[in-house]
Write a structure and sequence with these properties.
heterodimer; A: 211 residues; alpha/beta; Methyltransferase, Methionine Synthase (B12-binding Domains), Chain A, domain 1; Rossmann fold; 2 domains; five-stranded parallel beta sheet; 11% strand; B: 380 residues; TIM Barrel; seven-stranded parallel beta sheet; three-stranded antiparallel beta sheet; 15 strands; 42% helix
Chain lengths: 211, 380
């Protein structure tokens, strides 16, 4: 019994077995924070790396994130009220007019797995909802996704208004048609071409905020 | 004088035609309703009526007047939907925010010029629920008998290459996740394989019935038969080659072989995205034509594709709808056409067309420029 078993469970997509492994580890008096950092987050980083390298695909990535979430569900009650384990709050959604959510869901699941507080607004989210949720939950950043070339315009509008009204908020954009030059052109703070990269980007922002 | 049909067939025989053949007006090679309105206006042909091809994709048929104007070499044989889709009389109008449920029970909502999927009837289903599901019957959804006479006339006139569309795309993998929800189905591929096999088999049987109903009427007249099933995203396959071979390929292979048993038409297979890693499998399935050749996706370099697969595959599409057509100037469009004809059309094996249905973000000037460039630069 060790943290390695939990790490392996994520990599083997054992979403049914992981809860028991985490419980056993807790019974053995391993600190929850160690289980999170050294097993779950490390495993998710490895999965993200394999996904970015093209050696695993969306199904494997989703199952790994799902498995990690099952493990996290056991830990979460232990963290409640302990703000130190939450490294940042992100509001996430697909932009106005865009009903696609798999990329956005992956990012949301991985963010949550990486100890972020995630406010997922779903699909077809207009600028006001992004802003209201960021205000209500005191978020540090907004992450938005667009899958269609035709909804990139909505992304551009939302980023412009958000940066105008809340220059302190970081905005990260992504989705198939979006690239770095588009992200730069519309004034977004960050961009990634895949879900693992989005998590790394989010981490850098939080790090710089706490530096 | 080469006929349009000879031009296409020469190219598909991997021989050099007199000019590159050009396609417009079929499934995945047409215009969205909004883009079609723009094009008609630009051409001074606003009086032509707009007839909806598929309300689920918000696409329009293209009038013969425009096909002739562009010197298009193909004509598409598509069974009409049993629903009256004439614009103005149907709920599914662009920008209408209309919600509707398709023949499979999948919920859709129109946003802009695109119908998005919003609900999946089998999201929570178990294996036994599949027996209770009201599966659609293609005989109820399309008028197959009505296409026989027009197809026969076109065939006897011998002027155009006839491209067959089953009515449905013939998709199995995609239809499975439309019914199940993408994320749920992706997880099924790893943890719930029995369910995947059962669902794929159900859908395959419906596709085979669709193919039989369609090809019984027009199988003897058509030159090309389209099948479609998207398997890739922008950067990579959606699923691993291993998952494809285990859970998808057997069903695609069976459909291709069944279609081949009913018609001599060449099989045209459409998958968007970075599909290169599966091309050998498609060839093994019996695919002879690859569409759309999404040049904006990873590893879809047209020179390399031609070099590696050009002996076994013809290419259909390839004019970039991602960057060049929506954002380029007329000169960019001309350069794009020139490049694709050079890369893919040398020695035949290429039919030019847009990578995907042209949406309203493409200026009509660029649509005209694409086909003008094809006429001008496609000459031998």
């Amino acid at each position: 019994m060790s943290l390695d078993d939990i790490y392996d469970a994520v990599l083997e997509y054992d979403d049914e077995g992981i809860s028991d492994l985490v419980k056993q580890e807790l019974d053995a008096k391993t600190p929850p924070k160690a289980i999170l950092d050294e097993a779950l987050i490390e495993a998710l980083d490895e999965v993200g790396k394999c996904f970015s390298d093209g050696t695993i695909f969306v199904p494997e990535m989703l199952m790994a994130a799902e498995t990690m979430k099952a493990g996290l569900d056991v830990l979460r009650p232990l963290f409640l009220g302990d703000k130190s384990t939450i490294i940042g709050t992100a509001v996430i959604g697909s932009v106005k007019g865009d009903m696609h959510d798999i990329g956005k869901n992956l990012v949301a699941m991985m963010l949550e797995g990486a100890s972020f507080n995630v406010i997922d607004l779903g699909v077809d989210v207009d600028t006001d909802r992004f802003l209201a949720a960021a205000h209500e939950h005191d978020a540090e950043f907004i992450m938005m996704s667009a899958l269609l070339t035709t909804t990139m315009k909505a992304m551009e509008n939302s980023v412009r208004i958000i940066k105008d009204e809340r220059p302190d908020l970081k905005v990260v954009v992504g989705g198939a048609p979006v690239n770095q030059s588009f992200a730069d052109a519309i004034g977004a703070n960050g961009y990634s071409d895949d879900a693992p990269g989005a998590i790394s980007t989010a981490r850098t922002f939080v790090k710089s905020a706490f530096d | 004088m080469t006929t349009h049909k000879e031009r296409v067939l020469t190219a598909l025989n991997h021989e050099q035609p007199d000019r590159v053949p050009m396609d417009l007006g079929g499934r995945q090679t047409t215009l969205s309703i909004l883009a079609y309105e723009n094009l008609k206006q630009h051409l001074g042909l606003s009086s032509l009526s707009t007839n909806v091809m598929a309300h689920t994709w918000q696409t329009s048929y293209i009038d013969d007047v425009i096909l002739e104007k562009f010197d298009i070499d193909t004509r598409h044989i598509r069974p009409t939907s049993q629903v009256n889709d004439t614009i103005g009389e149907h709920i599914a109008l662009p920008n209408s925010d209309a919600k509707f449920v398709d023949e499979w029970g999948v919920s859709r909502q129109i946003v802009g010029d695109y119908a998005n999927l919003t609900g999946h009837p089998l999201q929570k289903a178990s294996l036994t629920d599949l027996d209770l599901f009201p599966w659609p019957d293609p005989a109820d959804d399309y008028d197959f008998e009505g296409i026989r006479e027009p197809a026969r006339k076109l065939y006897e006139a011998g002027e155009y290459a006839l491209v067959g569309c089953l009515g449905s795309p013939g998709n199995i993998f995609e239809q499975a996740w439309y019914l199940r929800g993408l994320a749920e189905f992706m997880k099924d591929l790893i943890k719930n394989k029995d369910f995947v096999h059962a669902l794929m088999r159900r859908i395959l049987d419906i596709r085979k019935r669709n193919a039989e109903l369609y090809l019984r009427e027009v199988g003897e007249f058509i030159d090309v038969i389209q099948l479609a099933d998207d398997l890739a995203g922008q950067d990579n396959l959606l699923i691993s080659p291993k998952s494809y071979n285990e859970l998808v390929k057997p069903y695609q292979l069976e459909l291709c072989q069944y279609v081949k048993s009913l018609t001599k038409a060449r099989i045209y297979y459409h998958s968007c995205g970075a599909i290169a890693p599966l091309l050998d499998e498609f060839i093994d399935n019996g695919v002879e034509i690859l569409n759309p050749v999404q040049v904006s996706a990873a590893n879809m370099d047209t020179q390399i594709l031609k070099q590696r697969y050009g002996k076994n595959l013809s290419f259909w599409g390839a004019i970039d709808t991602f960057e060049v057509l929506p954002n380029g100037h007329v000169e960019d469009v001309e350069a794009e056409v020139k490049k694709r004809i050079h890369d893919l059309g040398t020695g035949g094996g290429y039919v030019m067309g847009p990578v995907h249905n042209i949406c309203a973000d493409v200026p009509p000037e660029n649509v005209v420029a694409m086909y003008k460039a094809g006429l001008k630069q496609g000459n031998n």
